[in-house]
Amino acid sequence: MNSTRVTETHTWLAKLFETSIVARRLLLFIAMLGTCMLIGDGILTPAISVLSAMDGVRAPFPSVTKSLVEALSAVVLIFLFLLQKFGTSRVSFLFSPIMGAWTLCTPLVGIYSIIHNYPTIFKALSPHYIFHFFWRNGKSGWLLLGGTVLCITGSEAMFADLGHFNPRSIQIAFIFTIYPSLVLTYAGQTAYLIKNPNDHNDGFYKFIPTQVYWPIFIISTLAAIVASQSLISATFSVIKQSVVLDYFPRVKIVHTSHNKEGEVYSPEVNYILMVLCVAVILIFGDGKDIGNAFGVVVSLVMLITTILLTLVMIMIWRTPAILVSLYFCVFFVMEGVYVSAVFTKFAEGGWIPFAISFILAFIMFGWFYGRQRKIDYELTHKITFKRLEELLADCIVQRVPGLCFFYTNIQDGLTPILGHYIKNMKSLHKVTVFTTLRYLLVPKVAPHERIVIRKSNLKGVYCCVIQYGYADALNIEGDDFLDQVINSLKMHIQNCPDNISSDSQAIEEEVANLEEARLAGVVHVRGKTRFYIGLNCGWFDKIMLAFYEVMHSNCRSGLPTVGVSLQQRIEVGMLYEA
């Protein structure tokens, strides 16, 4: 019965997203908002973590001003961002000792505080006292949830470590070390605050005994840096995935590890994050405003994750309806209550992540909209091989010497730029290889699977798919790449079923034509398209496509990212009618 109900729900949801463009756009907006909130988290986490840790110098030295703490925090963050280009692997050997010291020392301080201040603090874990607290305080109790949401932050970033560890290791570490450590630490702080309620503005450093203050301060600062590193790495990973999915303008992505997909670095993103983090500290130096912003972004990321995961459970995993209902009801209600509580702090810093997220969402949607319009145009006006044959049959069109790599994103057909090129240049190279770059979610593609060749029914015209993984150095400049393609073409010519039945002289002639074309010269042709925004375009298209053109003009080109030299590159311009 449950299986039938899940199937019916899956079918209903699938039909809804297939038939309703509004539903698809709404889902896309939710996913983009969650992505942008996570990027906002990557800005706020380093800022609040380092600022809170560095604020500890003010307890033993009251003369230290808030401005000096902000300046020190900014210096630490700048140093952290400047280290990103070396990759996480270079410094990751320090992470385990730092976090090990943190998870061991803070609960010991917590136990000491519990014994000396309020030994019966663990009764707070009882549902009886939780119910009694909300029953007695009502609205005030609900509002106080906004102050406790920071206690659960960090868990939303655990997925970032999936680029470095497997899920089982993260689960074991969380259950047996992180969770007990957090419970004892927060219980110790609570026990201290019960006896010293006026110290609530700086409960962490004030509950630490004087004898171990400085060691804990050093460990806390280092742990804040490690936590910041986790979110910075997560931001790089999210933007890299968005670029691959064509939801974000092209930026340079460097894989700092040859065997871990999650370890990536982007220079442009790194320095933008650095500027924004420092700006948040210097402009919103009051920890309360940043804390409120942090609470909003974390709770919203969790809520959006719950919504999207529920859809995955129904439509992809086909999870039984009872389990889906239990998961959604428990987590949606719990996270929804937290979101409603932190939203009361919207005017007190809670607007910061929304400002960041909506700017990022506008960038992502603008890029996505422009790319979709281009793909739609290319699919509608694509050149078929039959049409190519008609173009080449024109006596005006000449087959000129040389080897041409003509890049196309369409696998079932050819880019309309090809027709534009032939009509205006009145020529095509004697050997033309229509090349498509395909990204695979593997570290490295095996050499024998790197290049896939398909012969067309036209003389000297081939289709080539170059497959590469995230750790492959995709460089198609130089003799090595040409040798690989030529050898793949020769093997295809010799092993093609249509050619096996042909005489050996024809095969040798085709192979000789390849070598002759290579000696005559190699060029790489790729389109550089722009939208022509006419008077008939609606206001929405005018705004979004104009914005897309600005981003497209300033983002990285596709050809330099694959190493094509300027001398061999030809870019063919074409206007697509919007």
From TrEMBL:
Domain K+ potassium transporter integral membrane: residue ranges? 23-388
The cross-references to PANTHER family, in alphabetical order and at most eight, read: OSMOTIC STRESS POTASSIUM TRANSPORTER, POTASSIUM TRANSPORTER 17-RELATED
Q: Member of which family?
A: Belongs to the HAK/KUP transporter (TC 2.A.72.3) family.
Where is the protein localized? Cell membrane; Membrane
Q: Which InterPro entries match?
A: K+_transporter (IPR003855), K_trans_C (IPR053952), K_trans_N (IPR053951)
Q: What GO CC annotations are associated with the protein?
A: plasma membrane
**Residue ranges of the TM segments:** 26-48, 68-86, 93-115, 141-160, 172-192, 212-232, 269-287, 293-317, 324-344, 350-369
**Any Pfam family hit:** K_trans
Species whose genome carries this gene = Trifolium subterraneum (Subterranean clover)
Q: Which residues form the K+ potassium transporter C-terminal domain?
A: 401-576
Q: What is its main location?
A: membrane
Domain of life of the organism encoding this protein: Eukaryota
Look up and give the membrane topology term.
Multi-pass membrane protein
Q: What is this protein called?
A: Potassium transporter
Outline what the protein does: Potassium transporter.
One GO molecular-function annotation for this sequence? potassium ion transmembrane transporter activity
Q: Which UniProt keywords apply?
A: Ion transport, Membrane, Potassium, Potassium transport, Transmembrane, Transmembrane helix, Transport
